[in-house]
């Protein structure tokens, strides 16, 4: 087993807690000199010290993992495409505060990255490892009070009326939004044609918005803009609703029993494929974690409209995604799960599955929403999934993908559409190459 050095992480933790080396060493039952050696990467991080750090400072051990920096390295690569990965990795590990400042400057540079309120909210969930403990516990408690899932719809409607004075009117809308709340008379109108699980989700969403408004607003408060805070409040209410419809412990226990078979889980909880995938990506409660998933949703044009990552998969923040990624192949086989063992340029490997989902039909000749939904995990977690059956899980079998052409270092990729940003383009007038970025 290779030695792991985490000096920069330990030093960052100590400084954020305003501790001297002597004070931190005392809390960890270490000598000050030993802690100093750890911080200066003269000693590797041992399991004993890792557990002591986690226990004494209530921090996820993954904070000290090399994978913790994967997303940061990806963002540095986009900002500095000509700098070798090993130098970026060293920079991220040794100078995390400096890197945060550098990336902050890059974020403020015009046209370089997506600076929309949606990106701010995505980053908010990423920083929380895609798990919001207070809301997850409240949702699970409400589901417990509601009892049997077959009675949940009626009891949710009653709870809204009894607890919050909100009257539910079913089948009041025939087109348009699934849910419309009228605050002037405290009536909630629901659209016709929704499944029982969808109705429960909308009722639980309203329960969260009406019953836990202060908590939602408080959780969203750190976001820097009013638009981002508004989007975050809705996203957090949706998180709460998912925790009611698919309570944490029941979801995790069933997922492990079914080996994360999404169709079986969807049938068990009465939820759709996309909603089930999204919930699986949030099973990150300390002490009782599920498989750490990455979740993504895209359309045929490659526009990524949802993405969540509890760990280090590096979604590109500027530019498109890789055309060799299985999420794009899903459109070739509508309604069927497509699998892929994929390798990124940094040597990390993943198992990805993807499937198309379609929205409600709105009448003859009217287009329907259509997306591909993807769920991925690190390759060392793949054996826990039913989707690993019959696949060659060796890294040698992996399809080489990347974070998007402008950030990807794979120069000889047959699908490359644009040169790597920052690299000098050399034109050979004496040869016609397969790899060409010209018009014809």
From TrEMBL:
Keywords from the named record: DNA-binding, Transcription, Transcription regulation
State the family named in the UniProt similarity comment for this chain: Belongs to the short-chain fatty acyl-CoA assimilation regulator (ScfR) family.
Occurrences of domain HTH cro/C1-type (ranges): 10-64
Question: What is the name attached to this protein's record?
Answer: Short-chain fatty acyl-CoA regulator family protein
Gene3D superfamilies per UniProt: lambda repressor-like DNA-binding domains
Q: What InterPro entries does its record include?
A: Cro/C1-type_HTH, HTH_RamB, IrrE_HExxH, Lambda_DNA-bd_dom_sf, ScfR_C, TransReg_Diox_bact_type
SUPFAM superfamilies, alphabetized: lambda repressor-like DNA-binding domains
Native species: Corynebacterium lemuris
Q: What is the lineage of its organism?
A: Bacteria, Bacillati, Actinomycetota, Actinomycetes, Mycobacteriales
């Amino acid at each position: 087993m290779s030695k792991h050095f985490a000096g920069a992480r330990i030093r960052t933790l100590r400084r954020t807690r305003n501790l001297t080396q002597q004070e931190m060493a005392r809390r960890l039952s270490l000598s000050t000199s030993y802690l100093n050696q750890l911080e200066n990467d003269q000693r590797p991080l041992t399991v004993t010290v890792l557990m002591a750090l986690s226990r004494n400072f209530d921090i996820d051990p993954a904070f000290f993992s090399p994978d913790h920096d994967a997303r940061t390295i990806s963002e540095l690569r986009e900002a500095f495409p000509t700098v070798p990965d090993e130098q970026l990795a060293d920079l991220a590990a040794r100078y995390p505060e400096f890197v945060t400042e550098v990336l902050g400057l890059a974020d403020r540079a015009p046209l370089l990255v997506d600076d929309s309120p949606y990106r701010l909210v995505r980053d908010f969930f990423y920083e929380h490892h895609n798990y919001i403990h207070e809301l997850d516990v409240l949702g699970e408690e409400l589901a417990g009070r509601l009892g049997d899932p077959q009675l949940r719809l009626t009891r949710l409607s009653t709870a809204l009326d009894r607890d919050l004075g909100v009257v539910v009117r079913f089948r009041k809308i025939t087109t348009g939004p699934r849910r419309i709340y009228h605050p002037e008379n405290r009536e909630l109108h629901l659209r016709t044609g929704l499944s029982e699980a969808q109705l429960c989700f909308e009722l639980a969403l309203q329960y969260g918005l009406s019953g836990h408004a202060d908590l939602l607003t408080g959780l969203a408060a750190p976001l820097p803009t009013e638009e981002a805070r508004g989007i975050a409040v809705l996203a957090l209410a949706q998180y709460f609703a998912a925790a009611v419809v698919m309570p944490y412990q029941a979801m995790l226990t069933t997922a492990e029993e079914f080996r994360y078979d999404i169709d079986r889980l969807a049938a068990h909880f009465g939820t759709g494929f996309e909603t089930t995938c999204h919930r699986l990506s949030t099973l990150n409660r300390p002490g009782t974690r599920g498989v750490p998933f990455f979740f993504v949703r895209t359309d045929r044009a490659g526009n990524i409209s949802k993405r969540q990552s509890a760990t280090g998969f590096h979604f590109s923040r500027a530019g498109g995604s890789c055309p060799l990624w299985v999420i794009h192949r899903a459109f070739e086989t509508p309604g069927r799960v497509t699998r892929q063992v994929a390798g990124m340029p940094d040597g990390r490997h993943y198992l990805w599955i993807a499937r198309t989902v379609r929205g409600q039909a709105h009448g003859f000749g009217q287009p329907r929403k259509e997306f591909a939904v993807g769920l991925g995990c690190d390759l060392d977690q793949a054996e826990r999934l039913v989707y690993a059956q019959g696949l060659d899980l060796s890294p040698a079998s992996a399809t080489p993908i990347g974070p998007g052409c402008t950030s990807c270092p794979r120069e000889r990729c047959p699908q490359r559409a644009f040169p790597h940003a920052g690299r000098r383009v050399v034109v050979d007038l004496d040869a016609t190459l397969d790899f060409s970025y010209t018009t014809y």
